[in-house]
């Protein structure tokens, strides 16, 4: 071991050394159907108008530290209750980090169902918290009794629930989320990253639960490159979280671009409708494939499915060789054994994916 390696091992916290970092696959020339991005860019005329708006930005000045103009549009578009407050971040990930810094930390516990969003564990570890997972029920909904028992045992400072859930895709029962919030003295964070594709939202109930914070993001509706996340909560929570937010955390180009996009949200809404249509078609096609054992119900812009007779690792490599990048979930959690996750793409992209997958048969392996 070199002197530098020894120094790194001495000073980097042991839990960080043991942590496996979040990895993003390089798509190369493959169609990218692994990251839940919207497949449709803005039309050309709208892009030109957006570029004109950006040309007026003074890049030599810091951005609005409070994102005031963007917050006004977000509040209108999301129909945020008047008594709730907003906090914007560099994607939802930063907001999760702020929550853990302010509320969790050393000596406190962060809890989440499993399987769920991988960054809950990663960010809890970064903040020095103990992380506890409670398996989802057989239908991938909350196991409310197990969650409430874990609340009594671990007294979590923060509990995360994703509605709809990633990576399974299903929505959660809002009454069960309410019951969970009532059963804990800690904070419950309802992560609605896929709100635009879901059948329900916890937002109308938010103010009835003082200990609930709600997260949304613009990443899944066509603005992944901007990295804009939204936290909605009672003002008292936001006042404290603001103390942990670094100044100017949302850049001026992101603020201006997000405001422009939300002012032209009919384009975003049209893309969402197309995704919903393709999601239905994709799910139906997958259900009739001999190599597919189960298609999980989805209220998101992706579909998770389990293969039969063919190892997911082999199917993943086959699809990549055919020019389609998906996400292999096999090995991430026992409930996701032999599962792949595919983002809903354009009709042409979906056809290529389906064609490549249909080229597989159990006899090949």
TrEMBL record:
GO MF annotations in UniProt: histidinol-phosphate transaminase activity; pyridoxal phosphate binding
EC number assigned by the record: 2.6.1.9
Keywords: Amino-acid biosynthesis, Aminotransferase, Histidine biosynthesis, Pyridoxal phosphate, Transferase
Catalytic activity: L-histidinol phosphate + 2-oxoglutarate = 3-(imidazol-4-yl)-2-oxopropyl phosphate + L-glutamate
Record has Electron transport as a keyword: no
All residue ranges annotated as the Aminotransferase class I/classII large domain in the record: 55-356
Pathway where it operates: Amino-acid biosynthesis; L-histidine biosynthesis; L-histidine from 5-phospho-alpha-D-ribose 1-diphosphate: step 7/9
GO term, biological process aspect, one: L-histidine biosynthetic process
Family matches, as InterPro entries: Aminotransferase_I/II_large (IPR004839), HisP_aminotrans (IPR005861), HistidinolP_aminotransfase (IPR050106), PyrdxlP-dep_Trfase (IPR015424), PyrdxlP-dep_Trfase_major (IPR015421), PyrdxlP-dep_Trfase_small (IPR015422)
Residues found modified as N6-(pyridoxal phosphate)lysine: 220
Pfam family, one: Aminotran_1_2
Keyword Amino-acid biosynthesis tagged: yes
Cofactor requirements of the protein: pyridoxal 5'-phosphate
UniProt cross-references to HAMAP family, sorted A to Z: HisC_aminotrans_2
Family, as annotated: Belongs to the class-II pyridoxal-phosphate-dependent aminotransferase family. Histidinol-phosphate aminotransferase subfamily.
Classification via NCBIfam families: hisC
Subunit structure: Homodimer.
Name of protein: Histidinol-phosphate aminotransferase
Organism (species): Halorhodospira halochloris (Ectothiorhodospira halochloris)
């Amino acid at each position: 071991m070199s002197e530098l390696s020894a120094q790194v091992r001495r000073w980097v916290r042991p839990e960080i050394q043991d942590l496996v970092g979040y990895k993003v696959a390089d798509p190369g020339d493959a169609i990218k159907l692994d990251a839940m991005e919207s497949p449709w860019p803005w039309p050309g005329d709208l892009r030109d108008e957006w570029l004109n708006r950006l040309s007026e930005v003074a890049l030599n000045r810091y951005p609005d530290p409070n994102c005031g103009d963007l917050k006004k549009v977000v509040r209108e578009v999301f129909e945020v209750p008047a008594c709730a407050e907003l906090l914007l971040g560099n994607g939802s990930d930063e907001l999760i980090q702020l929550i853990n810094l302010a509320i969790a930390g050393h000596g406190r516990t962060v809890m989440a169902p499993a399987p769920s969003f991988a960054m809950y564990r990663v960010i809890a570890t970064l903040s020095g918290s103990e992380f506890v997972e409670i398996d989802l029920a057989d239908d991938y909904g909350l196991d409310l009794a197990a969650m409430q028992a874990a609340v009594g045992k671990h007294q979590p400072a923060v509990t995360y629930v994703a509605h709809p859930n990633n990576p399974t895709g299903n929505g959660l029962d809002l009454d069960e989320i309410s019951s969970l919030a009532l059963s804990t003295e800690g904070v419950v964070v309802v992560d609605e990253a896929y709100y635009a594709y879901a059948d329900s939202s916890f937002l109308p109930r938010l103010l009835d639960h003082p200990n609930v914070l709600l997260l949304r993001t613009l990443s899944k509706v066509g603005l992944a490159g901007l990295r804009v996340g939204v936290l909605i909560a009672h003002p008292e929570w936001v006042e404290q979280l603001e103390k942990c937010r670094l100044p100017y955390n949302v850049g001026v180009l992101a603020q201006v671009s997000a405001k422009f996009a939300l002012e032209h949200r009919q384009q975003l809404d049209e893309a969402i409708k197309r995704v919903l249509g393709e999601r239905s078609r994709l799910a139906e096609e997958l259900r009739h494939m001999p190599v597919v054992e189960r298609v999980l119900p989805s209220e998101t812009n992706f579909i998770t499915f389990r293969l039969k007779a063919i190892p997911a690792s082999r199917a993943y490599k086959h699809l990549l060789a055919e020019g389609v990048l998906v996400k292999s979930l096999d090995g991430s959690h026992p409930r996701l054994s032999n599962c792949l996750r595919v983002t809903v793409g354009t009709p042409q992209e979906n056809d290529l994916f389906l064609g490549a997958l249909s080229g597989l048969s159990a006899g090949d392996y």
